[in-house]
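Long-time lurker. I teach an intro course on protein structure, and each term I like to show students one example going from raw sequence to a predicted 3D structure in token notation. This year I'd like something fresh instead of my usual example. Would anyone be willing to generate the tokens for the chain below so I can use it in lecture? Attribution to the forum is fine with me.
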Amino acid sequence: MSVPAVFDYHPAQSLDEAIALLQQYGDEAKILAGGHSLIPAMKLRLSQPSHLIDIGRIAGLSYIREDGDAVVIGAMTTYTTLARSELLRQRFPLITDSASVIGDQQVRNRGTIGGSIAHSDPAGDMPGIILALKAEIVVRGPYNSRTIAADDFFVGTFETALALDEIVTEIRLALPAAHTGSSYMKLENKASHYAITGCAAVITLDAGGACSAASLTITGASTQTIRARAAEAALLGKQLNETTIAEAASHAADGMVVVSDIHGSTEYRRQMTAVIAKRALLKALERARA
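-- Reply from a regular --
Happy to contribute to a lecture. Here you go:
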């Protein structure tokens, strides 16, 4: 069995302690949240931090609640908690869609939303969902907290806008407008359950039933979590039906660097991205009309 390289383990008792340890050890340190992305990478020695800072003992980082005109989610909230949340099911059903199909039950019981977005795996589900919802990510560093828009947070493959001494503490989601529907669907790797390609879709209809706002993101198919801007533009102002949605979905991979690997060629992923985007959009439309 593969084993990690030698490291020092630091069980932080507070955010201040965790941040101080990040300052002390810099790029030699990694934050351990749920660990279901980091530990496998360490066992394969794809990641070899000298210091592991465990934030699992820090109180007050797991919650889901309404806060004024937003729903806020603590960074250490597990996928199982997300999947079981009635508030999220009512307001943001694409989160419960996705949380119930991430990994297996062990992963869902331990993996966290904050850990997922900080890891920024382009094949992960949660980064694409947070981006589609245009969330705000609250992070804390040694001197203050700051808020980063999702569009600015995901920089590249396993890259985010987090500084070395910052930790994700909260995700803020603006309450959706009336007649908004959302959905997440994916074609998954049957072994890992990561997305070969997936689509998070959020659409809003105006009083006449036309699409007044659209947000689509693609997971798994590209080198980073990315907005499908051509497909978004193709939806705006249209009366949505299977024909107009299929036309928009055909542009879901436009402008993206589509990857090729043992799970699917570039052309296969491009075609399946359109198929999955159509399915996600049709479900989001059904919910917007409900």
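Some talking points for your students: The CA atoms of residues 243 and 274 lie 13 Å apart. The mean pLDDT is 96.
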